[in-house]
């Protein structure tokens, strides 16, 4: 088994994930939102790369909640932002959540040639590692990044997932995967590392410290969402 990390969505090509198990990570905050929505009973999450696509998709589905952000802010006319705290059972249970975000939904779309696509974050790091190892094929952790650039928060999350994978099965790591693992192993106080990330600072300035606290909890969820045929549901 070989494990690789792709450091941002813009670096994903069909060839880089084809035939692999992909784990898409956007810790702050899209994949944390998806995990929370599925955990709270959402019928599905439908990721879209543009606001226009999201609005068109709403017309085709029943019981839709529109969620997402642009520049970390609520999109005009949408029901929910990209704050996982908003995706409560009362808001999303039995609903189809149509979601569009700046980075996370783009990373999911660009990973579509993978054999399986799981949704990962710190909150489900151990569970998603178990699901990836069970597939018994090479794995690639796709970091969404921020605005087409490397993001520290996603990178250390990749390291956490790799650490849990190695607890279950030996693997060959690429240099970038080894680096992510080293970063995780030497920064077990995750906040001390992640608070240096640019996107952390952006969210803090917007008064979203509760979101940061929520997203930085490690392995507190057993939920493993899977993207398949254009929608995300719980993996079984």
TrEMBL record:
Alphabetic keyword roster: Hydrolase, Magnesium
Tagged with keyword rRNA-binding: no
Cofactor(s) required for function per UniProt: Mg(2+)
EC number: 3.1.3.71
InterPro entries membership: ComB-like (IPR005238), ComB-like_sf (IPR036702)
Substrates-to-products reaction catalysed: (2R)-O-phospho-3-sulfolactate + H2O = (2R)-3-sulfolactate + phosphate
Keyword Hydrolase (UniProt): yes
Highest taxon, organism lineage: Bacteria
Example of a GO MF term: 2-phosphosulfolactate phosphatase activity
Protein family per UniProt: Belongs to the ComB family.
Name of the protein in question: Probable 2-phosphosulfolactate phosphatase
Organism (species): Proteiniclasticum sediminis
Name of the gene: comB
